[in-house]
């Protein structure tokens, strides 16, 4: 066995592995006609992409506007179905729109293979380019609202679900948007979600416009949404749902403001981590693709093997297509392949009807061994390189737009709450409750103005907090590290216990505003 190849960068490694080891197998067994088109260099080089999917008027375009904090070319917002095109919102030096037909011939953009969906789709596909700090790290794909009934199926002129599936394979995040007033998942929307199967790890759900309903109704709406999703997304784990109001207007019912802020923070953190995990995601998708290509090769070669050389080909073809489930089971047994790696049975049967089985290739073990070798050795090399690249680069995060608004200043998440309470006050915040803490302090028999750890423990364990938390509070409060607490340190320990009991996190280091006034000189 030859040594694994050496690569300089992850994207260069992925390109080379795909072209030299996986692509020959895909071409040999017509993988591109059945599953997805060949990958291009741009697929490995492009920025992370976020795909927004939802019924009309759930706030998809407004969500992009909210993230970018500026309008983008081609943007239309309204309560009726307005966005009728797929809009790729990307970074550009000047504002402008690139139409679909021009977009699919640009080798620098990862959209070249979309020309397979024809003119009906390309006339409804544009790229909006504009200079924006958010778009320096990610690109966003806005999609037409999913309509219900015949409108969705007939008047589109192209296979909507197939286009979404194409995007789902290549994006880093799929965000499904729901309106708190329109929870009904139509058959068409359900079909679209099913087309995104196998990409559940990329999916996140946003329950938008949640500020328009009362708390009690919001709980019911959330329950109803989870119940509806449970019937469609076939995973035992619960899909992550973010609740909020993603636009820059005042909240209609501000009762749940704290909840919306925390949820928005979580969602932003998730989107901000995309550039950091982009290389790993591409690697993961290549492995997924390699496993599918391997199974596909076994299926096609098995069908070829069963075909007669001269007569009765049509009858045999019908019989093989009908018994495809048994062929799956046999391949599973013979090659120890997990059933989860096989393509959808019904879809495969439909695609096989139109194929000429006599043109299929027999099993070529050398091609399969090359892919096996790639998965076993080369991918392991690339994993090491991914980690190295991550550690060498400064932490990549999405910056600008709505991501900046809550980073600094008093409107940051949790500013002035918990351990941050009193951050801007002139006097020490603990002093407010110090007289109460002093009464307890003097009942614990202090010696030279200090109480021992054992005496402090008797009082601190009354909070019923676990020892690990109390140990952390002790470390933060014992500023001079003498193993004892004076009245100020004791008051500080009680303040931190109160912070924890109110449900806030403890800081890892004591913030400067919590330092007792008499100790500030010591630390300086």
TrEMBL record:
Membrane topology field: Peripheral membrane protein
Molecular-function GO terms, alphabetical: ATP binding; calcium ion binding; GTP binding
Phylogenetic placement of the source organism: Eukaryota, Metazoa, Chordata, Craniata, Vertebrata
Protein name: EH domain-containing protein 3
Gene3D superfamilies on file: 1.10.268.20, EF-hand, P-loop containing nucleotide triphosphate hydrolases
Location(s) in or outside the cell: Cell membrane; Endosome membrane
Residue ranges constituting the EH domain according to the UniProt record: 433-521
CDD domains (UniProt xref): EH (cd00052), EHD (cd09913)
Span of domain Dynamin-type G: 44-275
